Queue: 4 jobs
Job 1
Amino acid sequence: MKTYLILLSLSISSLVINAQNYTLPLWEGEIPNYKVSGEKEEFFTHKGIFFLKNIQNPNITVYVPTKRNATGEAVIICPGGGYYNLAYYWEGRDIAKALNAKGIAAIVLKYRLPTSNNYIVRHKSPLLDAQRAMRTVRYHAAAWNIESNKIGIMGFSAGGHLASTLSTHYDKGNLQAKDSIEQVSCRPDFSVLVYPVISFNDEFTHQGSAKALLGENPSKELRINFSNELQVTKDTPPAILIHSSDDKDVPVKNSIVYYEALQKYNVSSELHIYPYGGHGYSLAIGKGHLAGWIDRCTDWIQYLSKEKTDE
């Protein structure tokens, strides 16, 4: 395993020099919480948006700015899709390119979905993939011109639930693991949550995401464990939240309760609520001042980064 990781690291370093983006698998060998189901990954388009479903081989695609433009920050992006599909370009690749334009490295996560039949325990696969993605990026940070303490997680809709889950269900790594990547912390340094599902409180959750992740009749304990506003502590990473007050799919209260929880524990956070936009607007091109949401996020990321540098 150590020999493999050395060779992988060298090959990845070479790729960074020779390409602006590339894809690598999250897991080598046995994939945790996985069983063969006979399904095949599929793609389809709906309203001009490209979706993926039945993810069998989770991976990350790394988009890096040129070295002279690189700021040292990186963001792992979790596309949305209700835990049924992934809006892979709309809330993944397009966002990555916008971040690169600001000098920020971006890593699009193709994570397994609990609505495929390839899981052993339904709710575990997305979080396992997100944790592995964070460890992998941190492990290879130097080769990718990234500072290992400036790596965040970004998520849209159900991807926002996954990002907030990683932000509240992380660990410091297993120093006894034979796999060197598993020895690395998976705690994000910050999170960017865009019209996110946060809670599985029946009063304001997105029922489709709750059903997809937890199944038809989840226990009260499971619902509480994945209602991430209830899992915030003083050690939860800083967050910026973007939402629209007219979002009829994922009520804005999801972002509000997470922000309130962060404020309760004095965790640095921002909340931007736009009066319009609905749900699922990606970069919001052509939607007036709503299109400035990504600038608010990159400004905030670089503000956090400066604070770390000045410490």
Note: The chain is about 30% helix and 15% strand.
Job 2
Amino acid sequence: MDMPELQGYSGIVRKLLEQENISIGDEIEIISDGRKYRGILMARYELADPNYITLKLSNGYNIGIRVAENTSISKISAGAKPMFMRPPKPQTLSGLPNVIIISTGGTIASRVEYRTGAVRPALNADDLLAIVPELVEIAKIDTEVLYSLFSENVQVQHWIGMAEAVDHFIHKGVDGVVLTHGTDTMGYTAAALSFALQKPPVPIVLVGAQRSSDRPSSDAATNLIAAVATAAKAPFGEVVVAMHKWHSDDIIALHRGTRVIKLHTSSRDAFRSVNSRPIAYYQHGELKVVANDLNPRGSNNYTYKPKFDERAFLVKFFPSMKPDILSILADSGIRGFIIEGTGLGHVSSDWVPIIRELTERGIFVGMTSQCKFGRVNMNVYDTGRDLLKAGVVPLDDMLSEVALVKLMWTLGNLGEGAGLEEIKKLMLMNIAGEIYSRSLPNTDSW
């Protein structure tokens, strides 16, 4: 009998089940310690105690029953194995905007996998549409599965692939684009698409979920509805991230793609706009735009520049960190560094000589801060001024992750022969809202 028939079971328990020709989904009876249990055999978490059987009782609850020497198991009737059944695709209404949902993976396109108890990619874009039928009242939906990846597996070539797919659908005339994406690196992808797809004529909305779509507490449906509504109706052409503003389902925030970061591992309101406010909010079926510096929908200034060079490196400074690592990385071919320094943009003074050597070799060194709010100011203290003299470029209020992505994009678009001044000039140019002229107070907290 192959593994899926008794998913998660092993050892003595598995042998007992195989002897009775029992499979997942069968109705069985267990007699143990003089007590009788009757229910449906469920798949189970394979790394838990192997001496338990999981049953779904007639009242809907699952229980675990320990198998002892006097335990007897019998099959009452065969049942269908539990599996995901796609609901029928709802009928599309006419006269609505055209939105393409591009699936790249992540929790929003995943289900709990009982073999390991983990969340695994399982649903495609059509599944999402069938599960959230409200979408057909918002837009005419087309779907495409581009990737099926957890976001930690997304690489530069995937950013390029996403940019190519979005550009393709923009030229096909869609009214908006939604990309489902894992949340852990969604901020990086949002920044990459912001630089690759500048001033797009339609909204490009990245959306994810903190909890998979088969969980009762999932945020997938509400996030997806807001994302599709934004793609269909928003008056701007921007790359944004659509995620919960707070724990409740009633408000979804739309964050600028170069200003958003994931600040909580599991909370629904994990995403925050840093040094800025969200572009808009989606609440009770209405989109409220709160920013006024936005590229308008239908803009004729669309620029497509999907080149990236991976030879950029993000370094987080810490006390006693030796600067030699910079030289080792530079010798391996790294063309530029983003240093995440302390406070206003500092590293230990013993880094200054090596940084000077790197910049004299034409290697870019940019400075951001480990502080999420505020901006770099390297003129206040002696160490900062020494770093400036060594060639470090302060990157104002740019997020470290965004600065890394922008450096990859800058190196990719300028090419191999780019000089340090060319790189510096482009890094300090505000391309997609990644640099603000003034800092805003942090008023949006948990």
Note: The two ends are 51 Å apart (CA to CA).
Job 3
Amino acid sequence: MPRTLVVTNDFPTRQGGIEAFVAALCDRFPSGEVVVYTSSMPGDAAYDATLPYPVIRDRRSMLLSTRRVRRAVVAAFVEHGCDRVLFGASAPLGLLAPALREAGAERIVAITHGHEVWWARVPIMRSLLRRIGDSVDVLTYISGWCRDQIGRALSETGRSRQQRLAPGVDSGRFYPGCGGDAVRAELGIGDAPLVVCAARLVARKGQDQLIAAWPAVQSAVPGARLLIVGDGKHRGALEKAVAERGLGDAVTFTGPVTWASIPPYFDAADVFAMPSRTRLAGLEPEGLGIVFLEAASCGKPVIVGRSGGAPDAVDDGVTGFVVDPTSPDEIAARIVELLTDPAKARAMGDAGRARAQADWQWDDIAARCRAYLDASLP
């Protein structure tokens, strides 16, 4: 029986898109075919006890391709009888691929997300990414834009090994009617027109632009509410922006919400909006955005910022809109268009759910990942 060692910094209990991506893949391996080697984090013992597969926690909270980590990972690979390796994020841990190949790995797959775009643009990191691409059997990408950006750092051999593996959604968890009414009641929102943004509170995700757009939204749609779901280092600045604009109860911050509890917050929305933007001179783009798929699966129209591969998550004008993430006026106009035309919003939401069900299901994506790990493939 084949057995895969998943080597990853990104895994629950930490929350984020990559963590959700890796966990979703691991959960869909047949029993006995996967072992996870990952970093330590608060609450990990209780979480790991719920899983049907072994999880080995390194003593560090961040894994790097050091000599010590290499020895520990190779030891786990041998001890658990593995013959395949999946890197949850290719950089930097993909640098361990040669040691694992020497230990007997028949097939090595490394997943890329959005941060490898930064690696591809920084000289020293670019050379390391090139080494990773040359040492694995498959180097995946989550969007066409990410493929092209990362491919610039790769050798011809590395580019030939690029294969698509985008994140997905479980439409059995994210569906219309999965608890939105309870969220609205709990937060005192009632039947007010509601826009939801669910993401880490960091500058790139665009919550500040939604707040900047909100006076115009309120002017056109009196009583409209904005629900900002999540937490992060930018929260204080966002709360200050709300106060400075006198938005009062029009904007609600939920604070941290666990991934297990998140579906009803999407369901509560009339519109989902996250106008992500590329920052740091192009080094910090949005790779894709699982939240867009989760909102679409709940039957919600989505508003996506034009950043990196994020536009791949929406069929512009059909399931939602792609906007200039630096323009509060454009963001406000699209929100108002959807809040004042419920029929259009419903039609876009229906189209988005159909698209999510057809093209973005985790079961299909996990099956593709396991096919890439098939040692019989060239």
Note: The longest strand covers residues 4-8.
Job 4
Amino acid sequence: MISVLTVNYRSAADLAGLAESLARHPPDGPPPAPTGGPFELVVVNHAPAERIVLPPAAEVFTHILDRPNTGFAAGINAAFGASTGRTLLVANPDLRVTAGALAAAVRFLDEQPDVAALLPLLRAPDGAVQPSVRRFYTWPVALYARTPLRWLGLRPPFFRRYLYDDLDRSRPVDVDWGLGGAMFLRRADFPDGMIFDPRFFLYFEDVDLCLRLWRRGRRVVHHPGIVCLHAHRRRSAMPFGRHGWHHFVSFCRFVRKHRGLPPRPTVPRRPNAPPRHSRS
């Protein structure tokens, strides 16, 4: 079974769309029978007052847990604790899976045992590719990201490198980290029952996770052949808003935890592993 883990906070309409896409594109074969099926959707609801209405075809495989809002990372951890699947998909409510994506992800993880995090290609609803993978932060990137120059659309070479502008999207490739709103994982890689560090209320939980995986000798791979749709809003790009403040606080927490902005650790490459993208 594959378990899809998500957190709802005032996003009931998006959540219904995610559930509908799962019902339409199950991992293998027809939609699950009323007695269950090859996947489940576990929702931690941080907005209990919000009415969640799911398509009838999705109700049979969806479990909703009402909890106080303790942040995205803690919510995903709670969903993980209530799940049963061998393979996990951490998904934002505004994610939509496409035909064959779930089966392809499970198959790739089975074939590549040293890959701990698999990142699909994300496309916007209009089909445009979303830049969803990154190199680990450097101080020039961190400072530049909060300047007016970025808002004007100016992107110096070091920032283009951070965004993997030169990424080879013709095949799976190792990357530093990717957005936690669409991430395939293995249950076996989290024996302590936690995926994310719950000290990150919002943002940087995905950067922290990928750094920890690399340090354990596990790989993070971006697979352009596995496609999901994502209505990404980039709320953290506005530094003076609530989301921008959460992003800044989480950045400071990340720096304090890791004593700076460390690069990706070097991991020996298996003979049949996907190529690694340069970290320079």
Note: The radius of gyration is 18 Å.
